[in-house]
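Field reference: sequence -> structure
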Amino acid sequence: MSSSPPSPAGAEQIEWRVDSAPVDYPHALADMEARAAAIFEGEAQERVWLLEHPPLYTAGTSADPAELIDPRFPVHDAGRGGRYTYHGPAQRIGYLNIDLSARGKDVRNFVHHLEGWMIDALADLDIAARRAEGRIGIWADDLDGREAKIGALGIRVRRWVTLHGFSINVDPDLSHFGGIVPCGLAEYPVTSIAALGKKASMADLDAALKAHFPAFLGRLRRCGAGVEQCGAGR
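Structure field:
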């Protein structure tokens, strides 16, 4: 006789952690991996962790060494999907340890609604962000009318618990992105909340993310029989 899946926790039962001091990448990676393992064992709460990193580049599982143009900052293997990304001060990083075993075991659904959560939060800051067909990330029109990337995401799922998450550019030094081809998309610029002429702070973004988190969590669902991505998180 099979056991029933655990009931999904509500937003109020998920730890919401915000660090004000920059967090070294290896420490953050070890911490989120330990938390994911503890969640799987039923020994810890799910968590949303908002933080910043010192300047660095991360390489996803699809990273092409030719896209590392100028490694002026440390380069770390991330273990997530995707290619090269930059992280640094004044960029909001969100690491999510969410248990999908109780929320559908549907990785594509999780990623889709993670994008939607970022878009909804930016809308509160008067930024019309959007998805772009065939391109990863969150996009907005810059002050010159060009389509520019304002947010990135990349996840890994281990035993149906998520790791990694997203980044949103609040006011980072955009020249730091010049050391890589961000996410393999050389033809598109990168932008930020500040570069779009908005005065929203990191705290304003955090408040918008927290306000929309319950809706994001509520959209995660169990995928139907025969849906291919049901097995994608093993």
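Note: The chain has three helices and ten strands.
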